[in-house]
Amino acid sequence: MMKHIFAGAALLLSAGAALADERPSQAVIDAYLAATFGKAPPEWQARIKPDESLAVCNTTRNNPSSAQSEAMLKRESARVSYPADGKFLGDWKKGYQVANNGRGGQFSDAPNTVSGGNCFACHQLDPKEVSFGTLGPSLAAYGKDRKYDPETIKDAYTKIYNSMAVVPCSNMPRFGVNKVLDEQQIKDVMAYLFDPESPVNK
Ligand code: HEC
């Protein structure tokens, strides 16, 4: 009897190992992706080519080694472009529009479509808003809790511009680096987080 149980367990283990081995290689995944977008215009095809950091996240399944993480933070920090006028905060009312807009980057979009940040999809922001995602931490009272500290303001700009400059293989979109949002939109959504008058801080 015992013998059978052990044999069964061994069989399950080897089945598990076989399944794990069946994960297609990165080359197969890349070829499949390329074929999926085969008829798309070249600028769309270019979007599925991962940059250096994303390639590391893909091959390590978001689990880079500490050396890879360190290199990634350095590489991605160098890609952050800060406002030339030194001002990080725009208009919080426009920032709300950015946070609440999930449109953009779709085949069907007219060329002049304004993209949004879709922040509510992953974060609580205005504590009075009932509908929000929880993939990211709550950002309610973000500025107030941080006493509107200038260093923290700069750090948040970095995070929004290029999330991987702060957290390697972050799940948060890289809004500035990937040109989803322009500088003014990032300033506006920053004001939504940091303006004392913003509902986020009420
Ligand atoms: C697809 C989900 C997703 C979207 C969309 C998203 N975020 Fe995030 N965000 C995250 C996750 C996950 C974290 C925490 C882990 C990390 O830092 O990568 C995070 C962290 C943050 C932080 C740092 C919080 C801290 O710990 O202090 C800020 C600030 C932030 N996000 C702002 C924004 C803003 C502003 C937007 C919209 C322009 C946005 N996020 C859109 C997923 C998202």
The CATH class assignment of the largest domain is Mainly Alpha
- List each distinct ligand once: heme C
Average pLDDT level? 89
Give the terminus-to-terminus CA distance: 67 Å
SS elements, strand count: 0
Summed up, the domain count is: 2
> What level of helicity do the residues show?
40-55%
CATH H-level homologous superfamily name of the largest domain? Cytochrome c-like domain
Strand content: under 5%
> Helix-strand pattern, N to C?
HHHHHHHHH
- At CATH level 2, the architecture of the largest domain is Orthogonal Bundle
Remind me, CATH topology of the largest domain? Cytochrome Bc1 Complex, Chain D, domain 2
Please tell me how large the radius of gyration is: 22 Å
The largest pleated sheet is described as: none
Number of helices: 9
Given the C-alpha coordinates, what overall shape results? globular
Structural class: mainly alpha
What does it look like?
By secondary structure, the chain is mainly alpha-helical. The chain folds into 2 domains: 2-49; 92-201, Orthogonal Bundle (Cytochrome Bc1 Complex, Chain D, domain 2), CATH 1.10.760. Helices cover 47% and strands 0% of the residues. The chain has helices at 2-21, 26-36, 42-47, 52-59, 66-77, 92-100, 142-145, 150-161, 183-194. Helix 6 packs across helix 9 and helix 8 packs across helix 9 (183-194). Residues 7-11 have low confidence and may be disordered. Bound molecules: heme C. The site of heme C has 23 residues, from helix 8.
